[in-house]
TrEMBL record:
InterPro entries: BFD-associated_ferredoxin, BFD-like_2Fe2S-bd_dom, BFD-like_2Fe2S-bd_dom_sf. One of its GO terms (molecular function) is metal ion binding. This is Bacterioferritin-associated ferredoxin. Residues 2-50 form the BFD-like [2Fe-2S]-binding domain. Gene3D superfamilies: BFD-like [2Fe-2S]-binding domain. It comes from the Bacteria. Keywords: 2Fe-2S, Electron transport, Iron, Iron-sulfur, Metal-binding, Transport. The keyword Transmembrane does not apply. Signal peptide: none annotated. Transmembrane segments: none annotated. Its cofactor is [2Fe-2S] cluster.
Length: 72
C-alpha cells in the first residue's frame, strides 16, 4: 500500500529499508524520502516503522542462544 503519495513510497519499501539496516524513522525517511514533501503521511510511516522494528525485536528475542557462552 502507498504510504506517501508525494514520493510514491510504499509500506513494503519502508520495511525493506529497515531490513537493509535502517534502525529509526529518521533513517527510513533519509533512505526512502517518505514524508519529505507535505508530511501528511508521517504518522502512518512512523506506525509502519514501529511495527516492523517491534516484529524484528520479537523475532530476535525468540532466537535460542546457547546456555553457556565462551569467548574464543
Amino acid at each position: 500500500m502507498y504510504v506517501c503519495l508525494c514520493t510514491g513510497v510504499t509500506d513494503g519499501q519502508i520495511r525493506d529499508a529497515i531490513y537493509e539496516g535502517c534502525c529509526s524513522y529518521k533513517e527510513v525517511r533519509n533512505a526512502t524520502g517518505v514524508a519529505s514533501q507535505c508530511g501528511k503521511c508521517a504518522c502512518l510511516a512512523k506506525e509502519v516503522v514501529r511495527e516492523t522494528l517491534g516484529k524484528l525485536q520479537s523475532a530476535q528475542a525468540a532466537i535460542p542462544y546457547p546456555v553457556e557462552f565462551t569467548a574464543a
